[in-house]
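haha ok so turns out i had the wrong file open the whole time. this is the CORRECT one, sorry everyone. sequence first:
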Amino acid sequence: MKRRLLSLVMLIIMALLTACGGTESSNGESASEQNNNDQTTGSSDYPSRNITNIVPFSAGGTTDANQRIIEKYWTNYFDTNMVIEYRTGAGGEAGFTELARAEADGYTMGTINTPHIILQPLGRPTEFDYDSFDVIARLVADPQVLAVKHDSRFETLDQFIEELKANPGSLTVGMTGTLTGDHLTTLRFMQVAGVEVTMVPLAGAADQVTQLLGGHIDAIVGNVGDVTAEPDNYNILAVATEERHDWLPETPTFIEQGIDLVAVIERGLALPKGTPREALDMLYEALEEITSLPEYQEDMKNAGLVEGFMHGDEWAEEIERQYEEAAQVLEDFDLLEQ
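then structure:
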């Protein structure tokens, strides 16, 4: 009798323990774990909710324009929306930091720009490094230019350089933040041309245009895409390509004017490090299809965006190479973080 009573008590305890532990699926996951996976990338329903897209530069600039074009075609491939959030400041650092710190669940992506994500950790303490991201794809490869206002007294690059050699630091050049692509190109220009400019960091490309056209700065180091949307506003002194750019056939390169300078700003989309590969691959496939649309390509050209689609794995290898080159320039200007 005692043995039967003891057995009955043990059966009751085991039943209670099983109930408290929850049910498990065939793969050993509890119901709550399975539900969590359904909210990330473990489910064929991904994405089951809106995906946040962090834009690290101000609204109205070329980085923003690119993501607005992606947004236009997004719902052709996903049932949920892409929600753009601006996290501006410090040449993109605020946005890059937000992206790097985000949960790696496939529901936050953002624009990364090179060489910005390389330069900033090299030059100052940051909460991210150049390899803090899982890169989805490069979308834009936009060459740099040196441009002045259309009615500027400087008609040629030679005149601009002559003024600086006669009066070092006398001319102001607007650029997006510090430790950005514009900053690196400005440093390299000073290095190769043997001149000194007064650098004016600004929040984004839209701010550069406003400051230049308002007569508050003498020139900008910007992108082809920044100046070709309204080319009559500018006199473009040089483009940093090896050969003349198709969009600026009348503009001489730095190289043909004796300045050995080639520079390009690259922009694309990335996820926080550690995001499940399934999410990255699904997002890449959608972007590959979107960027191949003739209407997307037409929108890009109309917005002054130089298309440069590349798989994220390939771009990540290119970023590694750029890191070494950028580190040397910052070392030459004593700008490396100590």
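The longest strand covers residues 133-149.
again sry for the mixup
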